[in-house]
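Late entry, evening session. Most of the bench is empty. Finally got around to the prediction I had been postponing all week. Sequence below, unchanged from the version circulated by S.P.
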Amino acid sequence: MSVEQANAPSATPTSHLPAAKQTSSPPTDGISAASGPESSSTTSTTWRKVYAIVTYTPKRCRYDPAHPPGFSMPLNLLFAFAGTFTVANLYYNHPILNRLAESFGVSNERVSIVPTLMQAGYAAGLLFLCPLGDIFRRRAFVLVLVWFTATVWVGLCITNSFAVFSALSFITAVTTVTPQLMLPLVGDLAPPARRATALSIVVSGLMLGMLIARVLSGVVTEYTGWRNIYWLSFGLQYLILILLWLFMPDYPSTNPQGLNYFKMLWSIPTMVTHHPILVQACLVGFFTSSVFTSFWTTLTFLLSSPPYTYSTLTIGLFALIGIFAMCFGPLYSRLIIDRFVPLFSVILGLLICLAGALVGTYTGTVSVAGPILQAFAIDLGSQTSQIANRSNIYAIAPKARNRVNTAYMVSGFCGQLMGTAAGNHLYARGGWIRSGSASVGFLAAALCVCGARGPWEKGW
């Protein structure tokens, strides 16, 4: 099965519509039929008009080979803003699961399936939708996904059925992968000398979304109701759609001749075996992601227990520490990552994480200063190592950056699952010190992976 995409933009609203088989329908006198072929044709026409409007490209955003689109700071910030409040969709439910259980009349155990379904949906989107960015024009593809997510999100705001809420959570998570389509586009648009800095701004937005969602959700739900945070997200999604529609530049497909979808999926593991640098980045991403999620999961248990016994709102505010750490990412990228080989920045980031993990793990049970320092160090170190890894791997296959990104993100997602499972299990068995010691071991393993291959090696 081949999927082909035209390489030249058209100036008409229907420029992105796929070729369709023409069907004739009897003329109408302006009154829509309630059923039958006319009703079906009217519905089809309506959806085609919506699709044409969503994917229409304003003149200033159209691709001109003689004058390719530039990459400005406002566009960089727009991508970061879109990434922040798109990724946040996955995490609004985390601090309000008890409120969701009360509202839908289900047990805490049953409501815990919601974040699991959203993570599973996000994983499915990473694996099956993101590679399509190497075939389709990114602007139209991103806009359709944002529009679909925002429209379906209304169901989460109004439904009173837990089964429907769970199903829609999964569906919207599948299409919440648009930031992962923007990152390879940043790699295409940004000049090589500024690529790490440009990527750092968008990555900071993604990580900010993971943290700010918990703060916003906890505060809004505490003082109003849980549906209001979902309505807020609905409005933000449509704001993102409008801003991207107005300012996101069109860019040609990196494979305009088309690719076989299933062969393209198979090329992802094949690509990993052909590029040791990608293997190294995936393994480092796996270990750092596991440390990040293990820390933030078990931190809740530590702070809610003696000697701290903090409230849910206070625990949620700890995310502000991570937000503060994110602010250093772009500056760090400009001063360090853009000036040295990426592996140096990866190792430096891992050492920052390791220092924070050592301090926080072995002082966290007696002083809250330990976890505070650990939160800052892990967020800063994870961010910097991730930016350096992305800057490195995007250079290996310019026409397959979305598949490269998929391989990297899937490895990181697996690390998140392992970190959550291992952190919870070890905390239940031996408390904060045992789970933190596992994080120290994961970081040591990541440093060993970095030492196994130098920055100028062709193989291992």
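Two things to note before I forget:
The beta strands are 2-3, 259-260.
The two ends are 36 Å apart (CA to CA).
Will write this up properly tomorrow.
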